[in-house]
Amino acid sequence: MPQLQQALKNEYSKRLLRISGLRPPQRLARTNTGHYRMPTLEARGGWLELGLYPGPEIPPSEWESLTYTTYASDPSTYFAPITSATGKLEMKPFGDYGKCDLDGEWTPNAEKCPTIVRWIQSIGARFGRVQLLRMRPNTLRECRWGLHLDNNNEGNPETNGWAVRIWLELTHDDSSRLVLRQQEFDQRSEVQVPLPRGKQVVVDSQRLYHGGYHHGTATRYALISTVESSPALERWMDSQLLEPSPVSS
Fold first, then answer.
1. 2-48 pLDDT per residue, tens
2. Under CATH, which architecture does the 35-240 domain have?
3. Tens-place pLDDT, residues 155-208
4. 55 in the Ramachandran plot: left (φ > 0), alpha (ψ -120 to 50) or beta?
5. Contact (Cβ atoms closer than 8 angstroms) between residue 5 and residue 139
6. What 3-state class would DSSP assign to 55?
7. CA-to-CA distance for 120 and 9, rounded, in angstroms?
8. Which of 223, 204, 202, 110 is nearest to 152 (CA)?
9. CA neighbor of 214 nearest in space, from 131, 143, 150
């Protein structure tokens, strides 16, 4: 029975659930807000593939020794909060505390991953929710079933920049991909971004449906950070490009 239940979780049954209203559609991000949005990211459709993390080496102990938690809706994926709304080891929405997703506080996990903390700080832009993901292998079918939008800008004042996310892959498997779509069921818009160890990707995850695919045999780890769109983030992105381009003034 569990195998049958898993087989029924595919994007075709998901579409039927959306049509029937049993699984309400996610709210799409508004594009006409006053938040600053980065031209570099907008011009590329909401995502940008960067080069590999330039070092220093991040030891496995910085992700293996952390305290993880999960959501009841997805028992196969665990998160280690490095920041949270309160500094506690919890995954509660920042809005529950009247805060936006750019007002994170370091948790006890941060003390166990100093190299990761330095990487986040080196970006030079305001950041909020930072969490380390631990995920077991899955199939492309499962990944597509789970494609979703984040809600990074709940309560984010329009005087701030639009909150986006940076992905940093920490482990390696040739099959690892970040799957992106402009629309939930539009396979023609699907992009699969390879995720070798050290790969950095910036994603407007409230605009693009996304999910992780990893068909290898080992557990996969990645860092996901919410960061404010700003000229400072654009400068960092440009410094990390596979082929750097001139920084606009």
1. 555 566 677 778 877 887 877 777 777 788 899 999 999 999 999 99
2. Sandwich (2.60)
3. 999 999 999 999 999 999 999 999 999 998 999 999 999 999 999 999 999 999
4. left
5. no
6. coil
7. 35
8. 204
9. 143
